[in-house]
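Protocol step 4 of 6: structure prediction from sequence.
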Amino acid sequence: MDLNQFSDSQKAILKQFREAVKDCQLPDSDDSYLVRWLVARGFDIPKAEKMLRTTLEWRRQHRIDHIREEFNPPEVLKKYFSAGLVGRDKLHNPMWVVRYGMSDMKGILRSTRKKDYVMYVVYLVESSIARVNANLEKYKRNADAVVQSTIIFDMEGFSMQHVTNKQAMDSAVKIIQVYEANYPELLYRVFIVNAPKIFSILFNMIKPFLHERTRSKIQIFSHDAKQWKAAILADVIAEELPVSYGGTLTDPDGNPNCITMVNMGGEVPKSYYFSGKPDTANKKSLSISSGSKEHLEFKVDQVGAILKWDFHSEDSDIAFAVYRKQGGELIPVVPHERVDCDMAAEEGEIHCEETGVYVVEFDNHYSYLRSKKVWYSISVESASARNLTTIDL
C-alpha cells in the first residue's frame, strides 16, 4: 500500500481527515498512520474519526504509549509463547513467525493471567512498530510506502486442547478484537501452515470477529510443505526466511528453526503454575448474585490520590470496572472487562485526576447460573505521602 497510488480525491479526503483530528495527540503524525484508519473505514471520514478517537482513548486508559517501558512480560510468556520477528517480506514489511500449535496454551494460561497474555501480544505489536520507526530505511521500500506486517502462523502440534480450553479461546478472541479495533491495516498477509483438519473448528469460531478485509489476507495450508513454502517464498525474501519455512536463514549455529529469534514453545513446567487460591487475609468478601452487579463507592478528596485494588474470586471470572460519579452519570475510568482472577489476584491502581465519588463495580450479569464470591481490598492513598486512608464500607 503506497500513498502515491491514491487518487486525488482520496488524497483530498486524507487532508480533510487530518483537519478533523487535529486536536488529537497521535502516537504517529505521519500520513501513513492516518491513512490506515481511512482505508479501514472505506474513506468515510466520520467512521474513521470515530474509530481513531476510540483507539486513542483505549491507548490512554491502558497506557499503551508507555507499554514498552512499563510492562514487564511474565517469564513464562517470553519462554513458552512462540512468537518472534524474523525478517522481511519482499515489500520490506516486517515478518513474524508464531508457532501457535507448539505453544502450550493451557499451561501458559495456568501460569499467567489472561490480561497479561493479551497485553504481551500488544507489547510485541508495539515493539515491532517501534523497531520499524527506528529503521525506516530498512522497512520502507519507498518514502510513500505504508508499512504493514506479514505473519506465518505455524499450527504444527495444534490439537483439540487449543480448541476446548475456554481460557485459550477467550484469549484468542480478545486478541483479535483488540488488534482489529486498534491496529487497522497493519496486516499485509497471513500464512497459516500445517493446519490439521480440526483447525477448521477454531477458524469458524474466530471468523465472526475478523473484518472482511482481514479474512481476505489469510491463506490456509495443510501439511503440504512444498505448497505452502512456495506460497511464502512468492512474498518473502528467502535470505530473511528460516530454512524450516523454505528460506535460507539459520541461527549462527546452523539451526534451521532460528530459535534465537522465535522459540519453539513446548510444554510449560508445572513449576510456573499458580499454586492454590489467593490469600483472603485482610480482605472483605462480597457475593454477587447471578445476573447482577454490585457497586462500592469511595470518596476522593484530593486530586492525584491513588485508588488501589486487590481482589480475587472464589470461582471463575468476574467483570470489573471503575467509574467516577458526575451528576447522575457514571463516567468510565477503568473500562469494563471480564477478569480471570480465581487463581491469581487482580491488582491495580489509578491516579484520580478529579475529586469526587469513585465507583468500583463487580459485574456478574453474564452469568445466569451461579453467583460469584469476591474477596477484595480497596483503598485510597494520599498523592503526596501515599499515606493510607482507610474507608469503611
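Step 5 (inspection) to follow. Confidence is low (pLDDT under 50) at residues 385-393.
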